[in-house]
Design goal:
By secondary structure, the chain is an alpha+beta fold. Helix content is 27%, strand content 15%. The protein is built from 4 helices and 5 strands.
């Protein structure tokens, strides 16, 4: 059961349309996909949702992935990109997780402090 805070939070988020099932959902529940910038036809998952270029959105489920492949949605949404191996790996890795999409935590950079007396 959703709490009032969860409902209000999901209503304030930007809505995106899944290229597989064509249903709208909050941005936090979908994967952002982009065409590989190196010129290959690969589709990659934009984990941080910050990569340059046109993006497409997909629910992280095998059923939406199958629908997107069947509909040839990757090529239309991402200007000819069709290689979906990275997306399939990401969906299979997250298949055991329940609930909304959770991004992995970003490791904080550690700084090295000089030892006392060695600043010279």
């Amino acid at each position: 059961m959703l709490t009032v805070a969860e409902v209000l939070h999901s209503e304030n988020q930007p809505q995106r349309t899944c290229i597989g099932c064509r249903k709208k959902g909050p941005r936090s529940e979908l994967l952002r996909l982009v065409a590989d910038a190196s010129g290959s036809s690969a589709v990659i998952v934009d984990e941080r949702r910050r990569m340059a270029g046109r993006g497409a959105w997909l629910h992280p489920s095998e059923s939406c992935m199958a629908l997107a492949v069947k509909r040839r949605a990757f090529g239309r949404a991402l200007n000819g990109a069709t290689g979906t191996a990275d997306v399939e790996r990401r969906i299979k890795a997250g298949a055991g997780a329940e609930g909304p999409l959770r991004l992995p935590p970003v490791a904080a950079a550690t700084t090295v402090q000089p030892e006392s007396g060695s600043e010279n």
